[in-house]
Amino acid sequence: MIEVEHLSKVYGSTPAIEDVTFAVEPGEILGFLGPNGAGKTTTMRILSGYLPASAGTAKVAGFEVHENSMAVRKHIGYLPETPPLYTDMTVEGFLHFVARIKGVNAGDRPNRVQTAIKRCNLTEKSQTLIRKLSKGYRQRVGIAQAIVHDPPAIILDEPTVGLDPRQIAEVRSLIKNLAGDHTVILSTHILPEVSMTCDRIAIINKGRVVATNTPENLMAQLTGGSGYELEVEGDAADIQSRLVIFLQGLPNVKLVEQAPSDVPEHHKLRVIAESGTELVGRDIAKTVVGAGVGLYEMRRSQATLEDVFLELTTEEKPLDAATDLESDGESEGEEAEPSAGEAA
Ligand SMILES: Nc1ncnc2c1ncn2[C@@H]1O[C@H](COP(=O)(O)OP(=O)(O)OP(=O)(O)O)[C@@H](O)[C@H]1O
């Protein structure tokens, strides 16, 4: 449904994205995750047909975004970071207006507008002027304008920014309900957002896609993934010379790390599994006891999405072959300012 190949964008002499490649399957929700300034908005604006790329291609529903930008706008719903709303219109009036400019037939418009209003829980506000709405309701109108023409692909740039926790939960469940019938790309730098909402994640850092995979696979591939955390009691020299060495000799153990502890004789260890393998907890417990060390506590630890994100965006360390990696790309392009009225 969405295919991006070797896409680059340069603003003046500043590269914003370089050689970005990924695909989104029909009905899938892809989380586009990256720190501030990573290039998420730039990629989304190119995909929506509002910004020309400097190099590479992007196709939505089979249409090349630059060559067929009008067709793309009909097949895509776009919610920019700041929804462009005509605040002197009522919710329903604005959605009729957007439906018209998106090419929905006059006969179909009332039905499409009512469907978008219902899906976004806007029924009680449908006759309210947009300027009188709270931020949460405005965001829902932003999503309603993105789906009113029933596009197969929807692109949402930071859809929950500035919302309160209840509104965030509502917007997330709305997005989940859109999947299946629609292909969704959701940009965010909020980690729980992607793990709760998305089927797959593309992590972008400094303009490059550094990983694309399911959240589970990313966590499984992470170096220093799953393992056990131990709290043990004993002489520091014994821990170092015996226990750590014994633990390191167990099958599938990649590394044994020692964390600082405030209490003397009380030590915290982390036993980390080789990528893609599991450790046997019973063997670890036996090893501790066999080394003559007291075992206070032992619990499984799993790499979190935050670990993955920090590892990939702090050091730009690529994952293994199951992850899409991008190579260098060169491009040139023009300066572009965000255009007004992107939704419309
Ligand atoms: N109109 C512009 N002119 C010049 N440089 C720009 C322009 N828009 C973005 N950039 C630069 O391009 C890079 C990518 O910006 P972009 O807005 O795409 O990142 P982002 O991942 O969406 O960030 P954020 O999460 O902060 O919105 C940044 O270095 C930014 O400063």
Automatic annotation (TrEMBL):
<feature type="domain" description="ABC transporter">
    <location>
        <begin position="2"/>
        <end position="231"/>
    </location>
</feature>
<protein>
    <submittedName>
        <fullName>MFS transporter</fullName>
    </submittedName>
</protein>
<dbReference type="GO" id="GO:0005524">
    <property type="term" value="F:ATP binding"/>
</dbReference>
<dbReference type="InterPro" id="IPR003439">
    <property type="entry name" value="ABC_transporter-like_ATP-bd"/>
</dbReference>
<dbReference type="GO" id="GO:0016887">
    <property type="term" value="F:ATP hydrolysis activity"/>
</dbReference>
<comment type="similarity">
    <text>Belongs to the ABC transporter superfamily.</text>
</comment>
<dbReference type="InterPro" id="IPR027417">
    <property type="entry name" value="P-loop_NTPase"/>
</dbReference>
<feature type="region of interest" description="Disordered">
    <location>
        <begin position="315"/>
        <end position="344"/>
    </location>
</feature>
<dbReference type="Pfam" id="PF00005">
    <property type="entry name" value="ABC_tran"/>
</dbReference>
<dbReference type="InterPro" id="IPR003593">
    <property type="entry name" value="AAA+_ATPase"/>
</dbReference>
<keyword id="KW-0067">ATP-binding</keyword>
<keyword id="KW-0547">Nucleotide-binding</keyword>
<keyword id="KW-0813">Transport</keyword>
<feature type="compositionally biased region" description="Acidic residues">
    <location>
        <begin position="323"/>
        <end position="337"/>
    </location>
</feature>
